[in-house]
Design a protein that fits this description.
With 165 residues, the chain is an alpha+beta fold. It has a single domain (28-162), classed as Thiol Ester Dehydrase, Chain A (Roll). 22% of the residues lie in helices and 33% in strands. The chain has helices spanning 48-65, 70-75, 151-162, and strands at residues 22-24, 29-34, 78-79, 82-89, 98-109, 112-121, 127-136, 138-139, 144-145. The strands form two sheets. Strands 1, 2, 4, 5, 6 and 7 form a six-stranded antiparallel sheet that branches. A hairpin with a 4-residue loop joins strand 8 (138-139) and strand 9. The chain is elongated and about 45 Å long. The termini are far apart. 26% of the residues are buried.
Length: 165
């Protein structure tokens, strides 16, 4: 058991999500991106792994937008590793193009969080990527999946849920 130090961040717990075992979230969080040279191959086409990086950035920024900084979760001993990833590449982006990474929490079941993604043109007329990612709450100290979501994560999910009403 570790003792909490004064510099360790504290996030307020909530019981609002405790009664929810499976929730669906409808609002999309939008994260704009512009294709830079380091995102592309020699032909100026976005390298496939770049899309995955953009999706993670969008998810982290979505959580930050509701007051949950990923670094605080890590400091509290919680990590949210990806355990499943499914990506469908519809169309390529090229150097200089702009796009919107759209993400939303698809559902929460126990300690599993499923996120959905779309990467679309800024006018939303072109679809580049669709994807789903599953995360689990991991106790960093024990390196084991948690039995339940920590209060800080429950609080984040309650905020996302409240924004969908």
């Amino acid at each position: 058991m570790t003792q909490e130090t004064p510099s360790q961040p504290k996030l307020p717990p909530t019981s609002a999500i405790d009664r929810v075992t499976k929730a669906k979230f409808d609002n999309w969080f939008e994260y704009p991106v512009r294709v830079q040279p380091h995102h592309t191959d020699y032909g100026g086409i976005v390298w496939h792994g770049t899309y995955v990086s953009w999706m993670e950035e969008a998810r982290v920024e979505c959580l930050r937008s509701i007051g949950i900084d990923f670094a605080d979760l890590v400091a509290l001993g919680c990590d949210l590793p990806v355990v499943e990833l499914s990506v469908r590449y519809h169309r390529s982006l090229q150097l200089g193009m702009m796009a919107i990474v759209k993400t939303r929490m698809l559902e929460v079941t126990g300690v599993r969080m499923n996120w959905e993604y779309k990467i679309v043109s800024t006018d939303e007329q072109e679809l580049y990527i669709t994807a789903q990612v599953t995360l689990v709450a991991l106790d960093r100290e024990r390196n084991k999946i948690m039995r339940q979501l920590p209060p800080a994560v429950k609080d984040a999910l309650a905020k996302i849920s409240a924004s969908n009403k």
